[in-house]
Amino acid sequence: MEPLEPRISSRFAEADLILEALLGLSDPGVIELSLERLIDRVAGHSERSEMTERTMSLGLRIHEAARRLARKQASTHNSIAWSLPYDLTVRVFSMLDTRSVCRAAATCSMFNKCAMDSLCYQYIDLTSAETKVNNSVVFAMVQRAAKNLQSLKLGIQPVALRGTRFCQSMVFAAHNPVDTSSFSWHDRRSEQEKMPCFLTRSCLLPLTLGNGAIGGLLRQLHLYNIDAMDTTTLCTALSVCRSLFDFAVVGLNVNLKQTLKSLSSFCPCLEHLFFESSGIGGDESLKSSTCFDIVNGCPLLSSLTLRGFKLNDHKVQILLKGFQHLKLIDFTSAYTLTGIFLRSLSNCGYDLRLEVLILRDCVHLREVEVDKFLSVILQGECKNLRYLDISNKDGLATAGDCFERSYNPSHVSIERVFTERPEVHLVAEFPIDKSFGDLEEAIDGQGGSNDSTPYTLSPMSLEKSFSMGSSDGSYNSDPDSGEDLQDIGCTFYEEFSDGAEYFMP
Fold first, then answer.
1. Residues 6 or more apart from 215 whose CB is under 8 A from it?
2. Kindly report the CA angle at 178 between 428 and 317, in degrees rounded to 5?
3. In the 3-class helix/strand/coil scheme, how is 250-308 assigned residue by residue?
4. DSSP assignment string, 340-364
5. Where would I find the H helices in 122-171?
6. Distances from the Cα of 119 to the Cαs of 88, 92, 222, 243, in angstroms?
7. At what angle do helices 205-212 and 231-238 cross, to 10 degrees?
8. What is the largest CA-CA distance in the chain?
């Protein structure tokens, strides 16, 4: 009996001769004519059909083999043309945004292999409104990152913040802040409602798998306009995020009180908190006891944003007294805030580190309290303050009656702040109410337009980061409180991307 190995060699040699003969044909059209003659020689319809099927199957196999060889040859060429080794290529990919990494993965098999490395998914950003990101995509990305996951951003990001890296209320590009407060909070909400989100509450499930092994190392979590997200699911995810440093919620129908309780119980490292209500300023779920909880549970907080909540002065004073290292405060659209808490900023008894204070569109913010605070600034207090926004589309409340509005508050004090404290970027924009006769003089003096009388300066460079040191001890609640309260010059061969694993266009 003939040995097996020589027989296999003989078959390969025969196949080589056949393929070499086919590839050597000067006119490939001859193949069709020859195939037609061979089929005509076969007797019987079923035999002819079988022969045709065998021919199609053979042609398909040859085609697939040719595609695989093309990818292999292109990958070999690209490996030579691409001068960076695997480790450095992964390092480069890890600096790209998630969309760019997915596109690189679809470019060639060499890039696909590098792009599948877990280091490329340390910072997952799936907030694009143009891409239909669903739970499966999130699960695959998180699984790829595994224990290297540090940042996760999901949902439909507000237009004002899209394409930028924001630190709570301010966007810091390089060292220069870009003010996002000029975008109306209510306008952003109405626009977001037109954008469908394909994520459900299960999108955070990967964080809790394996006893929270992945979520336990997560440092940043941003969630935008995920309509299906509920409080229970969010709090379950937060319970495993014990290293969370930066947390942002925008447009989610979740309870502030329960969310803050979860943060205070499980996230002691939290430094940046951004929470924007999904309502229109009527959310009153925040109580004084919750304020004490978050102060005790998250003593390192340096940046606090609570937008659209019924946040009174007593609750704010609890937060200010507890968080002695706050550098950024944003209480935009805080419905019941009058500004009385501003008095405590000059008599706090410790070195105030506050750099950014935003009280935009606070309906009950009083003109007299704003004027007193500006006087404090003029006296040299709040030395670290670099940004102050007291703008209000409805004007400030006058003394004794919040229904009486002032549209040109503290004109003299504002001008003095510009002159005597030029390092403070003061934003004080109020609409014109032509029933007030004294506005004409103000407009003539400021060169105002017909739409508003803004008092603004150019954004100043804030080169200090919003990082802070450790805090000693915790702040205990007051038992007497009775209130229910890149270009590289290389030539790359194209590779077929049908074998590449990617999700985003």
1. 207, 208, 237, 240, 241
2. 55
3. ECCCCCHHHHHHHHHHHCCCCCEEEEECCCCCCECCCCHHHHHHHHHHCCCCCEEEEEC
4. GGGGGGSS-SS-----EEE-TT-TT
5. 135-145
6. 11, 10, 20, 18
7. 40
8. 115
Identify the pLDDT of residue 47.
82
Rounded to whole angstroms, the Cα distance separating 340 from 185 reads: 24
Instruction: Tell me how far apart the alpha carbons of residues 170 and 360 are, in angstroms, rounded to a whole number.
Output: 13
| SS3 state at 393 | coil
**CA-to-CA distance for 87 and 94, rounded, in angstroms?**
11
Q: Which helix (H) or strand (E) holds 330?
A: strand 328-330
pLDDT band at 432 (very low <50, low <70, confident <90, very high): low
Tell whether the model's pLDDT for residue 482 goes beyond 70: no
Model confidence pTM above 0.90? no
Answer positive or negative: Cα dihedral of 376, 379, 385, 388: positive
Contact 504, 101 (CB under 8 A): no
Helices marked H in 421-479 — which ranges? 439-446
- How many Cβ atoms from other residues are within 10 Å of residue 401's Cβ? 8
For the record, the structure tokens of 329 come out as 């405060």
In contact, 72 and 81? CB cutoff 8 Å: no
Does residue 382 contact residue 354 with C-beta atoms inside 8 Å?
yes
Type and span of the H or E element at 423? none
164-186 confidence digits (pLDDT tens): 334 434 433 223 343 444 334 44
* β partners of residue 427: 389
Which residues, 6+ apart, have CB-to-CB distance to 307 below 8 Å? 185, 275, 276, 277, 330, 331, 332, 333, 334
Render the burial of 437-476: b for 16+ CB within 10 Å, e for the rest. eebeebeeeeebeeeebebeeeeeebeeebebeebeeebe
Q: Where is pLDDT greater, at 499 or 28?
A: 28
Residue that is written with structure tokens 């306008």 in the block: 187
H or E stretch including 65?
helix 45-81
Q: Which DSSP helix (H) or strand (E) runs through 222?
A: strand 220-224
Residues 6 or more apart whose CB falls under 8 angstroms from that of 52 comprise 39
Partners of 68 in beta bridges: none
C-beta atoms surrounding 436 within 10 Å: 14
Packed helices 367-378 and 411-420: angle between N→C axes, nearest 10 degrees: 20
The answer to whether the CB of 402 falls within 8 A of the CB of 375 is no
Q: Which residue has the tokens 């419905």?
A: 335
Q: 192 vs 134, which has greater pLDDT? A: 134
Give the closest residue to 363 by CA, choosing from 325, 320, 401, 416: 401
